[in-house]
Amino acid sequence: MVGQRSCVEEKMIKKMDALGNCDELDVKAAVMNRVMAIHDQQKTMGGEMTNLRDEREPFSETGDPVMQKQAKILPHPSKFRKRLLSGVSAAVLLGMLGFGALQLSGLGDLTEHGSQSTIDITQPPDGAITLVNSGGKAIVQTVHYNTPIPSTSPAIEKYLSLLATYKEQVLAHLNAGEMAAYYVNDTEFTKLAKGLGYGNQLQFAFSSPVYSNHQDFVKKLKGTGDFWPELPSILANGYEFEYATFKAAPPYWPIDKEYKEMLEQFQKKAKVDKTGQKLFIEKIAVNAIESAELTYHKGDQTIELSLNQSAYMGGISQVSILEGQTAEKWSMTGTGKEAVFIAASTEKGEQTWSSRNLLYWYDEASQTIRSLNDGLNESLTREQWQVIANSFIR
Question: Which is higher by pLDDT, 34 or 65?
Answer without folding.
Answer: 34
